[in-house]
Amino acid sequence: MKNDKIKRIPPWERPLFIMIVTFVGGYMNGYTYITRNNILANMHTANMSKLGINIALGEWLEALSYFLPIMTCILGAAFSELIRAILTNFKFKGDWRKFALILESISLFLIGLIPKSFPDVIVTNLVSFLMGYQLCLFRDCLGTGFNTTICTGNIRTVGILLFSALDKKNKESLKKLITFTILTFSFGFGTIPGTLISLILSIKAVWLCSLILFLQAFWIYYYEKIYLI
Question: Are 212 and 20 contacting, i.e. CB atoms less than 8 angstroms apart?
Fold first, then answer.
């Protein structure tokens, strides 16, 4: 009976599912760093700081280069909400994020077709758009807020859970601490193959993420077919 209840938990509420999506977020940082002149497409806290620093120094063109990825991330987040609204209004069958993941998978595949001769700023801003988009697809895990493409908030959560585990000294608190520590560091672990595979396959390394996200969408489809249809 307990195993059946576990099986009925939607995939997007399971730590393994969120860990894989977070892995993709980290992978994409490694990918853009290697293939697009050391640019980290997800580092918007740093981008915001560099934006302010360059405005203060009067380096307007440099400031613009940090402003653009911030804006594309915002637009990506807004686009995910647009997709959700459209699919909800048209009564899309099943969870809307299934289609959203397929759309992201296709987009990443197409990015892998853009040659290295193409301006880096266009590619990195496309990736920033997609990471903002992904950020809004999955916002929590086990009832706790979680981000799949940025880390600062997740690190804060681990600190809070560490205090809770030390204070309550029970297995559940410790289990949650371990779970969120693994989830948080899966972003960093994602950058390792993102870097190494990009060194080997160059721009086509992004296709691995495309495949992973497609399989995540299939996971949702399979769950819905077994338990909801």
Answer: yes
How far, in Å, CA of 51 to CA of 64, rounded? 7
Phi, psi of 137 (to 5 degrees): -75, -40
* DSSP calls for 122-185: HHHHHHHHHHHHHHTT--EETTEE--SS--HHHHHHHHHHHHHHHHH-SHHHHHHHHHHHHHHH
The predicted structure's pLDDT at residue 92: 81
Q: What is the pLDDT of residues 193-225, one digit of tens each?
A: 999 999 999 999 999 999 999 999 999 999 998
* Cα 17 to chain centroid, rounded: 12
Count other C-beta atoms under 10 Å from residue 16's C-beta.
Answer: 12
Nearest to 142 by CA among 10, 19, 14, 7: 14
Q: Which long-range contacts (CB under 8 A, 24 or more apart) does 107-114 make?
A: 108/206, 108/207, 108/209, 108/210, 108/213, 109/206, 109/207, 109/210, 111/203, 111/206, 112/203, 112/204, 112/205, 112/206, 112/207, 112/210, 113/203, 114/203
Q: Read off the pLDDT of residues 134-149 as tens digits, 9 standing for 90 and up.
A: 999 999 998 899 999 9
